[in-house]
Amino acid sequence: MDRFSILHISDLHRSIANHISNDEIINSLMEDIDTCAKEGTPKPSFVVVSGDIILGSTQPQEDKAIDEIKKQYKEADELLNDLCKAFLSGNKERMIIVPGNHDVCHWISRRSMEMCSMPADETEKLNEMKEMIKSMDDENGTIRWSWEDFSFHKIVDLPLYNMRLNEFISFYNNFYEGQQIYKELREEQFTTHDFPEYGTTFVGFNSCYMLDHYNKTGRINRDCINRAIRNMRSSQFTNRLKIAVWHHNTSGHPHESDYMCSDILLPLVNAGFSIGLHGHKHISDIYNDYVQAGMDKKMTLISAGSLCAGEKQYRFAIPRMYNIIEKYGNRLYIKVRSSTHKEHLLWEKYRNIDYIPLPLISDDSIMDEDLLPLINARDYAGILDKLSRIDESRMRFRELWLECYFELIMFDEYSDLIGKPENDEAAVKLMTLAAKKQDRVLFDVTLENQIDAELITPSTLKIINEIGRGI
Ligand SMILES: [Fe+2]
């Protein structure tokens, strides 16, 4: 099937205390997805839940904390069952769920660690500390630094430490009723979901490897990545659109460690995974295509905001959000929906992203058999001719129209179609095309009339001014 959509939700943070009920979530999503369907977006064939299923517990006693966590998972289980009935006709195989940092039980990781005793001698102590700091770079390292007591701690009971996702695993295995099994072994904590009829395979990863109450850094176990890639080498996966799902975002501020280094994804990119879906950041975003220098492969990273986190978990006043990702041929259309109301979920458009080109992944996944050879041959005049004879192509293939106008330096047509660019990349592209016309007046008029300084960053304005210098 060449056209389908994915309901991408994340960071549910389910808790009994959250006043947004399961019923309100389901009702509001059904209403909103009906609205999007009227605009032409197919109803979801898949639901991706990219982690932080529950909020977790801060109860001071372990038995009470576990009790609270179980109640949160029960709430989440009911929500996801209802979602599955509402959008997937009850077919749980079409739902892909991964854990997030809130699914890690801190009580278990606390019990598995001990504070490190340090030598009395200052020199020995310093040397020991240097060794410990060095060992913290090791991805499998068992030393942790605590800002709570300014001490090093060590994981002394690794089997116990490895049980910190057990409540998530119980929830997961109970939810899927045997259709999917979440493994306890950390090297096997990935799940494969193959849909030949859609030419698509999802692989869900645990990005909380060695993550605990002291270590916030996201990481996927190397063995999981390697085993998933090895599985993908089976002929059944040839030409599949490969989508990886995990929880953590892949960039952060210099002082942050609460994200996952994007280098972890390189083997997946190399193995042909072209889309990555994640959450954690509590904001919907489409990251630049992640490309390794020298490689012709890339991964488009799509982040979902928090669907229904409580108000305290909002970051920087970003509202609740979710994504509908439509795949149509080799293009993606992403509708980012948001709800700014504090008390209720009232979804509306936050941003529409018309397309992100995917690698041409297979012969049977083309959007139009006549159009594809023209795209591959970069025959832009031929593409324009073909597009002009396809119904609704200005809406469906807007970016392809723009690409052709850009390549053929058809400034007026490009400018008409794009209007006021909504982001930095589009603004730079419009002004680059204006510069190509080598017409100072045209450049200045375009800059004044079409570039909205509030929509783009100051550094982009600088880049645009640089572009205009040579005219
Ligand atoms: Fe998170």
Report on the structure:
There is one protein chain. This protein has 16 helices and 16 strands. The protein is α/β, with parallel strands linked by helices and 471 residues long. It has 3 domains: 306 residues, Metallo-dependent phosphatases (Purple Acid Phosphatase, chain A, domain 2), CATH 3.60.21; 43 residues, no CATH class; 105 residues, no CATH class. The strands form 3 sheets. Strands 7, 8, 9, 10, 11, 12 and 13 form a 7-stranded mixed sheet that branches. The protein has a 6-stranded mixed sheet with strand order 3-2-1-14-15-16. Strands 4-6-5 form a 3-stranded antiparallel sheet. Helix 1 packs parallel to helix 2. The chain starts with a strand and ends with a helix. The site of fe (ii) ion has 7 residues, from loops. The site of fe (ii) ion (FE2) has 7 residues, from loops.
